Amino acid sequence: MQTPSIKNYTINDIVDLLGDKPQKDSDLHIHLSKNNFDETPFIEPFRAGNYTFLLILKGTFKVQLNLITHILQAGEMITIKPQTVLQIVETSHNLEIIGVSFTIDFIFKILLNKNEFKGVDFLTANSYPKLKLTKEEEATSVLLSKLLAKNNDAGTTDMPYRNEIIMHSFGLLLYHYGAIFKREHPNLDAHLSRQQEITLRFLKKLNDHFKNERSVKFYAESMFLTPGHLSKVLKDVSGKTAGQLIDDAVIMEAKLLLSNPLLSISQIANELKFSDQSFFGKYFKKNTGLSPSKFRKITS
User: Using alpha carbons only, how large is the chain's radius of gyration in Å?
Assistant: First the structure.
C-alpha cells in the first residue's frame, strides 16, 4: 500500500519541477545540470514512474532510495528504477550531474526487435549498486548523453534519421552502462531476486512470442506461474501488469509497421496474427485512441 503523502511523478512532472523544457520524445528526457537551485525542488520523498541514469560529474549528491542512503561522488553513476521512493538528502554547492530519464515504453522502442535482452538485465537488479567509472568511461557517458540531448531537443530543426540517431545513441548508452555493470558485478544473475528473475524471463519470452501470443495465461503457464502472481510481480517491478506489457509490445510493433506505407493494414493485422483487420483495428483503437488508418495519416 503506497503512502498517500508520497507523490508520484511522471517525466513531465519532473521536467516542470526542474524548470527544463519538454523534449521531442516525451518518454525520454536528458537533464544536464549544474547546481543552480537555492534549494532542491524535490523537498519531500517521491516516486517516479520511470528509470533514471544519474551520473555525477562534480560535487556530492546524497540521496535515499527506498530508505537506503547513497552518497554519490564525481565519476559515479547509479540507476534509479520505476516506483523507487526517492528523497534527496543533500547536494554540494558545486554539483554537476547528467540525468537520463526514460520510461519502460522507451525500452520497448529500443529493444523490441532484438532477438534477446542481453546486456540490460542490470535494469531489473534488486539493489542499487553504484558504478565507478574510469575517466574514459565517464567521457563516453557524457558524449552519448549530450548527443541524445541535442537530438531530443524539441527546438532542434528536424534532420534525416533523427529518430534513428536518438534510438541508437540511447542503445549505445544502455549497453555502455550494462557492460560496466557486468564488469563490476559479474555474478549479477546469482544475486537477482526471485521477482527480478521472473521479470527478466517474462521480457525475454514476450520478445519471442508477442506477435503470436497475447494471453497472460500463455506466459504464466510457460513460466509455471499463475496469471495473477505473474502480473503482481511485474507490477511491483515495472509498474505495469503482464497484460499492459503485452499490449505495449504489440502496439509498439503495430506503430512501427504502420510507418511503412508499403504495408496495408490488412497485411499488418495478418503479421500480428489478428483474426482479421476489423479486430486489429478495434484492438489498436482501444489502446491508442486512434484507428490504424487515422494513426498512419497523422504520423505520415
Answer: 20
As a whole number of angstroms, the distance between CA 115 and CA 54 comes to 28
Nearest to 148 by CA among 247, 32, 8: 32
The three three-digit cell numbers of residue 284, written as one number: 489498436
Provide CB contacts within 8 A for 84, sequence distance 6+: 47, 48, 65, 66, 128
Phi, psi of 171 (to 5 degrees): -60, -40
Domain 7-189: top CATH class: mainly beta
Q: Which amino acid is at 221?
A: E
Share of the chain above pLDDT 70, in %: 87
| In contact, 47 and 8? CB cutoff 8 Å | yes
229: enclosing H helix or E strand: helix 227-238
Q: Where in the chain is the domain with CATH 1.10.10.60?
A: 193-299
What are the residue ranges of CATH 2.60.120.280 in the chain?
7-189
Q: pLDDT, tens digit, for every residue of 259-290?
A: 888 889 999 999 999 999 999 999 999 999 99
Residue 180: partners with Cβ closer than 8 Å, 6 or more residues away: 131, 133, 137
For 230, left (φ over 0), alpha (ψ -120 to 50), or beta? alpha
Question: Is the pLDDT higher at 139 or at 35?
Answer: 139
Burial of 279: CB neighbours in 10 Å, binned 0-12, 13-18, 19+: exposed
Q: CA 94 to CA 199: how far, in whole Å?
A: 39
DSSP reduced 3-state for 161:
coil
The predicted-structure confidence for 174-212, as pLDDT tens digits, reads as follows: 889 988 988 887 765 544 567 777 887 888 788 788 889
Q: Which residues contact 283 (CB under 8 A, 6 or more apart)?
A: 250, 274
User: If you write DSSP's letter for every residue of 174-200 in order, what string do you get?
Assistant: HHHHHHHHHHH-TTHHHH--HHHHHHH
